[in-house]
Amino acid sequence: MSSSPAGTPSHHPTHLAARQVTLFGDFVAGITNVAPSTAVALTLGAIMAVSGLAAPSVVVLVGLAMLCIAVSYHFMNLWRPSAAAQALWIARAVRPVAGLAVGFAVILMTLTANVSNITLFGPYLLGVVWPSQQNNSFLQWVCTAVITGLVLYIAIEGVRRAIRFQTIVVWIEYAIMVVFVIALFVAEFTGHPGTTHPHWSWLLPSTSPTYSGLMNGIVLGVFMFGGWEASVYLSEEGTDVRRNPGRAGIISVVFCIIWFVILTMAIQASAPAKVLIAHSSNIIAYSAGVIWHKPWSSIVSLAVLSSVVAVVQSQLQNFSRMSFGLSRDGLLPKWLGRLGRHRTPALGLALAAVIPVAVLIIYLANTSAGKTIGLVSATAGFLYIVIYVAGAIACIWYYRRTLTRSTRQFILAGLLPFIGGAALVYAAITAFPTTPHQTLYPFIAMFVLIWPAAWLVKYLTRAPFFNQPVIAADGTGPDEEAEPELVQAQTESGPDAAGSATEKPDA
To answer: The pTM is what?
Structure first.
């Protein structure tokens, strides 16, 4: 970690606050970053447009792939907890330059995802408090700027306070959404006008009108699930830095599979598919309006709004922790690694908040630009695929020497990461030909540019990060428990202290 020169007093803390986040807090971070209500509001209409009524089957397929990836993330965090997460895993297990490129992908993903997220602030808030001005662009931007500012303030005040705030939001969101889903099912099974019965066939991929449509739906589904890994960026701030973040990721994925299936089944049966697709920009609010009159239907919009607030804060945390981790290794400007009095990367959090709010001005000021930005934001789905596949590759490659030592090791550290990564790569490649150019080209540009950017940083900084040896597991894999003193070293001295005691250089 960065520190002040010898003899110079430090006016800023140099370590993230330790032992602030419990297993439940890690779980809350995961599900708030996925933000199920927001994710459905943003993607369900688009998934139905390409995959038809097979949206629930898309949820199951993507969820199973994500579960495989979550297992690989758990194993990698057992090895090396770090705020830089995937960037450090890839750097130490595969190649340093590749790790930095993946770190850049995470940063780009958080920004593009939040550009999508904050577009919901204005319409949903105004829809609740001032419906006649719901489409007023200026008021939409003001609402977004104010809410983002409040979210930023809470995030800067400390990770424990941020998680506490997210927990409150989760209880509010799910209290409303569970009642909403129950009401939808009651209306659908009692023959409410315009509704139909949910069908088990919706869980079959064959329900999709075309195979390419199913694959496009899966890519969108990755964006829907994206974010369950938020706990790994907070691993240095946890009470069990090695185990809890990975466990929370797995629990978050299982929870989201179940909840997404229930929610998509309920919404799909609330109206004909064409009608729901036509209202894709406010699909949850529309479904609520089918069975409830105002003001009751507006309460569901409040649940979506609370979900957006939580996910925006979570993405700010992801950006700032990754930036902090890379800055600590001398790969990004030092100010991104500077911690405030609450030991949070305050400047990194501020930058992550300002950029999407600034982009929103363009989105709201120009209709064609707004559509373009919306399509560009969909590139977050492809960027998620990159970082998830990278984590799976890192897991397989790091544990390659230990995979034949037990069936458990082979399945969990080898087979499942391979299945999850291969499934996502196949879906992405299959979806490429029918992906809108405004989405595909920005992704290709970002994916291509992160590599020369990583090489440029290596050339300009000459950071020790690039001279560290590539390593592989040699008897100290996830089958063995981390020793207490290693966890203590991790808490006190950062990720390198623990890692150096459990690794052997790759021959």
So the answer is: 0.87
